[in-house]
Design brief:
The protein is an all-alpha fold. About 70% of the residues lie in helices and about 0% in strands. The chain is flat, with a radius of gyration of 17 Å.
Length: about 160
């Protein structure tokens, strides 16, 4: 896939898993899905086949990768909102911990991918993205009361490269 469409691809992929797990209801069977899970499956059903096609096909114009923008945006937003909602809940259960880990991994891998893309053009911006996102993730861990603030800052730091 082209670099310009995959700025938030890792966050979207981790968000797909996090949003599905956040909406999971233990009282239902595994095949019985609720509305939120169906929404995640809808966007994943758009992203995965189209992304797989563009990853292997070499005979298309790069403009057509714009078809990946809506599911990438929605799944990245679901990663942030569902991970934050469950991760900042008062309950400290296994699911909240896993959602927090998925959120951290999504933000961390997205920062690494973006810094890899930017390194050839602006090495200083690559370092800024890595350092600031790492600081935001560490502060989210150290100061749980300000987790929303540091998550917002981390996402803002991830928007530096695509915005620049």
């Amino acid at each position: 896939m082209r670099r310009q469409i995959s700025w938030f691809l890792p966050l979207a992929l981790f968000g797909m898993v996090a949003a599905y797990l956040a909406a999971y209801d233990r009282k239902k069977k595994w095949w019985q899905t609720n509305r939120k899970q169906q929404d995640v499956l809808y966007w994943a059903g758009w992203l995965i086949p189209v992304g797989a096609f563009f990853s292997v096909a070499n005979f298309f114009h790069p403009y057509y990768t714009i078809m990946l923008a809506p599911p990438l945006a929605v799944l990245a937003a679901l990663a942030i909102t569902s991970g934050l909602k469950k991760a900042t809940s008062k309950r400290d259960d296994k699911r909240a911990r896993w959602l927090r880990y998925l959120l951290f991994m999504g933000l961390g891998t997205t920062a690494c991918l973006q810094s890899y893309y930017v390194w050839a053009y602006y090495p200083w911006l690559s370092l800024v993205i890595l350092i600031l996102t790492a600081v935001a993730l560490v502060m989210m861990t150290l100061i749980p009361a300000k987790e929303r603030l540091f998550l917002t800052l981390g996402v803002g730091f991830l928007c530096l490269a695509p915005g620049f």
